[in-house]
Amino acid sequence: MRRTGADLDRLAETESIFALANGWVGWRGTLDEGEPYGMPGSYLNGFHERRKLDYPEGGYAFPEASDTVVSAPNAALIRLWVNGEPLDIRTGTLRTHERVLDLRAGVLRRDTEWISPGGHGVRIRSTRLVSLPRRPVAAVRYEVEPLDGPVELRVCSDLLANENVPQRSDDPRAATVVQDPLTAEARRSDGLDGVLVHRTDRSAQRVAVAVAHLVDAPAVVAVDGDCTPDRLRLTLTGPLAPGERVRLTKFAAYECAPVDGTPPDELADLVVAEAAAARADGFDTLLAAQRAALDAAWRTADVELDGDPELQQAVRFAIFHLLQAGRPDGDRTIAAKGLTGNGYDGHVLWDTEGYVLPVLTYLAPEVARSALRWRHAHLPEARERAAELRLAGATFPWRTIGGRECSGYWPAATAGLHVNADIADAVLRYVAATGDTRFLAGPGLELLVETARLWHRFGHRSDDGAFHLFGVTGPDEYSALADDNVFTNLMARRNLRGAADAAERCPEAAAALGVDAAEVAAWRAAADAMAVPYDHERGVHQQSAGFTAQPEWDFANTGEDDYPLLLHHPYLELYRRQVVKQADLVLAMLRCPGEFTAEQKARNVAYYQPRTVRDSSLSAAPQAVLAAEVGHLDLAYDLFAESVLQDLADLGDKTADGLHLASLAGAWLALVQGFGGMRDDQGVLSFDPRLPRRIDRLAFHLRWRGHRLRVTLTAGEARYELPDAGPEATVEVWHHGERLRVGVAPVTRPMPPVPDAGPEPPCPPGRRPPRRA
Amino acid sequence: MRRTGADLDRLAETESIFALANGWVGWRGTLDEGEPYGMPGSYLNGFHERRKLDYPEGGYAFPEASDTVVSAPNAALIRLWVNGEPLDIRTGTLRTHERVLDLRAGVLRRDTEWISPGGHGVRIRSTRLVSLPRRPVAAVRYEVEPLDGPVELRVCSDLLANENVPQRSDDPRAATVVQDPLTAEARRSDGLDGVLVHRTDRSAQRVAVAVAHLVDAPAVVAVDGDCTPDRLRLTLTGPLAPGERVRLTKFAAYECAPVDGTPPDELADLVVAEAAAARADGFDTLLAAQRAALDAAWRTADVELDGDPELQQAVRFAIFHLLQAGRPDGDRTIAAKGLTGNGYDGHVLWDTEGYVLPVLTYLAPEVARSALRWRHAHLPEARERAAELRLAGATFPWRTIGGRECSGYWPAATAGLHVNADIADAVLRYVAATGDTRFLAGPGLELLVETARLWHRFGHRSDDGAFHLFGVTGPDEYSALADDNVFTNLMARRNLRGAADAAERCPEAAAALGVDAAEVAAWRAAADAMAVPYDHERGVHQQSAGFTAQPEWDFANTGEDDYPLLLHHPYLELYRRQVVKQADLVLAMLRCPGEFTAEQKARNVAYYQPRTVRDSSLSAAPQAVLAAEVGHLDLAYDLFAESVLQDLADLGDKTADGLHLASLAGAWLALVQGFGGMRDDQGVLSFDPRLPRRIDRLAFHLRWRGHRLRVTLTAGEARYELPDAGPEATVEVWHHGERLRVGVAPVTRPMPPVPDAGPEPPCPPGRRPPRRA
C-alpha cells in the first residue's frame, strides 16, 4: 500500500490507512516529525478515560459516564531541524515523498527528499513497526543524510504525553476528545533511555512507556537528553557532510495497569526492561520476527483474487488490518476502529462479534477466542446491567471500552439487545470451527447461558403461544423499538438452542451455573415458539412486525446531499418508514440461512434491496453475500467492492477517525460467504460457490477443526484441499449439497451453472454502487 | 387557605401554594424577609433565558438550546433587624406565625409575633398582592410594632436581581437553574423610589422593575437609600416604642421587552410611572380593585360543593390559581406551573390546551383566547419546525417558553404530535362556547388549517384504505413511538374535520391561506378513513395498535417504592408492556365521547383502570370523569379528590417546583364533566349529571355563548338557569338526552337513578386513591 506526495487534505485518512498495531499497541500513521497531522494517536487496547454524560432529559439507567479512548504517550515522534529550519512538508520543497505500508513485512516505510526554505536538502528514510510477536514493543528506525551539501542537523526523538488531539467534527459518530487526559506520576531519563509513567483521573489506569535508543552518527554529533513530566526528548545535534548519515533507532515498550495494580516504579521497570531487550536484539531482529509472524499469518489469511488487481490489493489491505487488530493471547477484544483511530470514542460495538469474529474465527481462531474471553471477563458488568434493567442473565453493553454500557441514546443502544445474541453466535461459531470444547465448557457456556436467560426473561408468550420480543432495535438503525425484529428473534432462537445444546453437552459445567433440565426445556420451548413476522400477501419476511405496512420513503424527493439520511431527517420520519439504513433482514438470512427457503431469500432480497440505503458501512457486505446467493453476481461484486474500498476510497468520509474494521471484515465475508458460498451455521462446513464474471480465480483458506483448508475456485471448478495435512487427515465439507471428504490431495468438483435470477433488484435511486466494468 | 407555624420542612411547597400572580407577574409565597426559603422566584410570563443542550449522542433536529425560566428582580423582599438581630423564624421564639391566602380578596396575609434571641418582641403584619386589574403592578404593605418593650429597628426593603436559586434535584422533571442570569443595564435611585434594568444574555430580553415606597413611621426613624447594580435598598432605622408602628408600603411595577425593542431608559420610565401611579392611588385602592376583579371572576368561577368541606375549599383553591395564572388581554399563555414555580423549566406543555383551557374556556374565555393567540403568535416557529422535521403545516413544540422546541428527549416530545391536535381542539372548543367568529376567521382558522396540514402529510394510507399515524407518542408516556394511538388518531380526526368545517365557514380567510376544495376534501377523507385500533377479542380499544398484545406489567413484584415507575425502571421495560402512566385511551373517551358506545366506554374503563398507575398528575381527572360516566361514582369521587389535592397534599412530592395547574384544572373537569356530565364536543352543551354519595349539592357556572349558565345538582334534581339574562334570552342545553331551553327562570329536571355499573374495576395494586369515607 503506497502513497506518494504530501496529500495535505487527507492527512487524517492516511494516518488511519497507515496505522500499525499488534492488537495491544497501535500507532496511527502520522509523520515521524509529528506535524502536519490530521489526528495523532497512539493507543493501547483498553486504555481509556471516563467522562460524564449529560442529558437534557435523563432517564432511569441512562449511563452516567462513558469510556473514551485516549492516547498513550506517543513514542513514534522524531523531529528534525535542518540548519535551524524544522522539517515540515508544508514548507520548502518536497522533492520526493513516498510512504509504503508493507503488508508482508508489517512495517511502514517512508522516503522523503526535502529542501528546506533556506535551500538545504536532506533525505529521510524511516521504518516503523509495531511488533506482532512482542506485545509491548514498537520501534522506528530513522535515517537522515544530506542531499547536496553539508547541513547542520538537529534530530529530536520524543516521547510525548498529552499530545494535542483536535476535535474533528460535530458528527455524533465521531469521538469526544478529552484534552490532557494523563497525569504524570513518574519519569526517568538516563542517557539514551527513559520512561514516563502517567495515570488517568477517572478510569484510574496507569500507563508506562519506555524508550531505548541506538545512535549511529558521526562522532561530531552531540547527544543530549531532556525530560519533563510530559515529554522525554533525546537530541542529536551536529554537522553532517555529504556521504555521512545519522541513523537513530528507537525502541519503545508500552504497558498499562489499573492504578491500584502495579505501582508506578514497577510498571516503569517492566517497560524499561522490554525496551532494553528489544534494543539488545536489534531492529533487524524485530524486522525478521515481524516477517516470520506475518508469513505464518498470511499462509491462512491470504486471499487470491485474480482478475481485479485493485481489489486484490484492497482485500490484502483489509486482511492485514484485521490481523493486526487483535491479539491471540489473553483476553483483549477489537474495537470498531481497532487501534487505528478514536472514532466511536474507541468503543467496542457489535461489529466485533457480528463482522470481525466471523472472519477471524477462520483465519486466526486464537484471536477470536481472546475477544470472547474479553466478553466473558466483563460478565460481571453485564450481569449488573441486566439487573439494573430489571432483566435476567446478562445484558452486554452496546458500546464500551471498560465493560460498562456507554451509550447515550438508548433506543439505538440499550434496545439493541441483539448484541447479546451476536456474542452467543460468535461463541457457537468459534466452537464449531475449532472444536474447542475446553472453551465451550468454560467461558463459552457461561456466555451462552447468561444470554439465553436474558432472552427467556425478555420474551413474551402471546395468547396464541408464540414467543415475542417486543420493543427492540435490530441492526437497522433507521428503525427502533420494533416488535419481533426477525434478525433479533432468529438470533435469539439460535442463542437459546445453542445454550440448550451446550448445557446438555457440558452437564457438570451447566449444573454449576444453576442450569437444570427445566430451564433447558424452557429455552427450547421459547426458541421453538419464536415469532417470525411474515407478510403473506407480499411473500416476504417483515424486518419487524408491521414493517411492510409502513409508508415508503420518499426517494423521489431525496437528493444526493440528503445522505446519510440520519444527518438530514429526523428519526421521527426515519423510524416509521420502510427505509433501511443497513442490512437487517438480509443479515438474518446470512446468519441464519436455514430459517429461509431459497425462494424466500430471493423475494426478500428483491424487497429489501431497493429500500436499503447503505448509510452504514456494515451494510454492503451482507447484501453482497445474499445477492450472490440468490444469483445477482454483478450486484454482489459491486457491493463487495464497496465494502473492501470503504476506507481506501474513504467512501463514508469517516476514515479519518479510524478504519471500519467491520466493513473490511465484510469484504472477506463477501468473497468467502458470497462467492465461495461458505456456510457453517449448522456446525458443518458447506460451500455453494458461484463466481462473478470479474473473478477469474478466487482462492482462500479457512482454519477448520485444526486444519488449514484451501479452496480454489475458477469458472470451471472448485478445488478443496488440506495442503498441510498428513495422509490420513480429512475434513468433511459440502459442495453444492454433495458431501466431500477432503484431505491433502485436492478434491475438485465442477461449478454448477448459476441459475437465472431474473432482473437485478434496484438499489434506492442514486445509491447503486458503481458498476465495476 | 391558611397555614400556621413555621413548617420549615415544607417551605418550597408552601411558597407554591401561596404564590400570587396575575398572568403576567408571579411572586412565589416566600416570606417577606426572604429567608429561610425553599426556592425563591418572581416571574414574568415569558421571561426566560436560553441554555445550550448537550447530548451524549445528538441527532438531526434535536434542539440545540432550551428556554428556561429565570426570576425577574424580586421586589417582594422586606428584611427586618430587631436590635441588630435579623428576623429569622428559625431563631428566637416564634410566638405566632400565620399566613392566609385570601381567595376572595386576592392577597396573601401574614401575621407573626417573634421574640428575638436577645428577647425583643415584635409583631409583623404584611399584606401582599399581585394586581389582577393592573398588569405590571404588585405591592406589599408591611407593618412592625413592638410587642412588649421598646426596640431598635432596621427595616430594609429590597429589590434584588440574581437572587440565589437552589438546584433542587436530579429529577428530570425539575428545573435546570441558570445562576446569575441577569446583567445589569441601568439603575436609578431617588429617595423612596428606584428602578433596576437588566437583560438576559442569550434570549436577549430586557426587564425593568421599579419600586415606589410609602413610609408611615415615627419621625425619629431615618430613611436611607442604597443602590448597586443588582440591589436597590431602602432602609429605615430608628427606635420604636410600644404603641408606635412602622408601616412600609412598597409598590412595584414589572415590564420586559426584547433587547432590540424598548431601550433601557424608556423601559425604566415606563415602570417608574406605573409604580408611582400605583402609589398615588394607594394600597387600599389596589385592594379594592383586586376584590372587585375577583368578585367578578368568582361569579362565574365559583363551584359550590356541599358535603365535603375539605374538598370545597380545595376546589376554590384550585380555581383561584387557575384564575390568576392567565391574562385576558394580549397573547400570553399559561405554563405548566403557571407563574408559581420553575418546574419543567417554566415550560408550556400540552397541559395548557389539554387541561387548563378546557376549563378557562367556560370560566374566563378571554384568557383562553389570549393563550390561543399566543400559539398563533408562534406559528412561524411551528412552521419552521415542521419544515425542519420534513413535515407540512405547523408542528408546535412539546415544551417551550419562547416558541421553539425545547425538548431534549424526542420519543416523548417530538413524537408527541398530539399537542397539535390539542391546540386545534382548544380552538374548536373555544369557538363553540363563545361563538367568537372573528377569532375563528383569524387566528383560529390558521391554527386549524396548519395543524390539519400536518396530519394530512404525516398520515399514511395502507392498502386497505385506512389512514394511519405511525410512530407517534400519545399522552401515556410509558409508551412511545407507537402506531395509531387512538387518542392521537381521534384528535387528529377532530382536527381535520374541524379545519374542514372552519374553512367552509370562512371561505375567504381559507382561500387566503391557500386552502381549496380539494384540500378540504382530502382532510375529510383522511378523517373518515382514520384507523382506530380495536381488539375484537377483548372487546376493547387498543391504546395503540398492538397494545393489548403486549406483556402485562409485573405488579406482583412492584413495590410501593417503585413508583413513579420511570425513576426505577427503564423505558425498555415500560414501553413494551401494558402499563399506562396516565389516561390516554381514557382521555380519548373524554375528548371524543361520540366515538365510543356506552358499552365500549364501560369495557375500556374496566380494562385500562387496572393498568394505569397514575404516575402523572394528569391522569386522575380524566379517569374520574370516565369512572363517573360509566357509573363508578365512588371511584370517580376518590379520583377527583386526588386531582384536587395534588398540591395541597403534595401527592406527587413535586409541589415545591410549582403548582400542577393541569391537575387543578382537572378537578373542575372531574366535577363538571364527571358529576355534571357536561359534554360539548359536538357544539352543543349537554349534561348527564350523576352525583356521588359524598356530594349533597353541586353548583357551578359556565359561560356559554355570552351567557352565564348556572347548574345546580342535588340527589333529586338538576336545575339550569341563566341568572343574569334578560327575559327573552335562552340557551339550549341537553339533560340526559332531553333538549331544554334555559333562560332566567330555572328549569329543573329529575336526576335519573344511576344504573348499576357492576363491580368497580380495580386500580393497580396499592394504587387506589384513598376512599373518602
Automatic annotation (TrEMBL), chains A, B:
Keyword Hydrolase part of the UniProt annotation: yes
Superkingdom of source: Bacteria
Residue intervals passing through the bilayer: none
Region (Disordered): 746-773
Domain spans labelled Glycoside hydrolase family 65 central catalytic: 316-668
Domain Glycoside hydrolase family 65 N-terminal as annotated: residue spans: 4-254
Pro residues bias: start-end ranges: 749-767
Key words, A-Z: Glycosidase, Hydrolase
Keyword Lipoprotein assigned: no
Glycoside hydrolase family 65 C-terminal domain segment(s): 678-742
GO molecular function, one term: hydrolase activity
InterPro entries, A to Z: 6-hairpin_glycosidase_sf (IPR008928), 6hp_glycosidase-like_sf (IPR012341), Gal_mutarotase_sf_dom (IPR011013), GH65_N (IPR037018), Glyco_hydro_65_C (IPR005194), Glyco_hydro_65_M (IPR005195), Glyco_hydro_65_N (IPR005196), Malt_Pase/Glycosyl_Hdrlase (IPR017045)
Family classification: Belongs to the glycosyl hydrolase 65 family.
Name this protein carries in UniProt: Family 65 glycosyl hydrolase
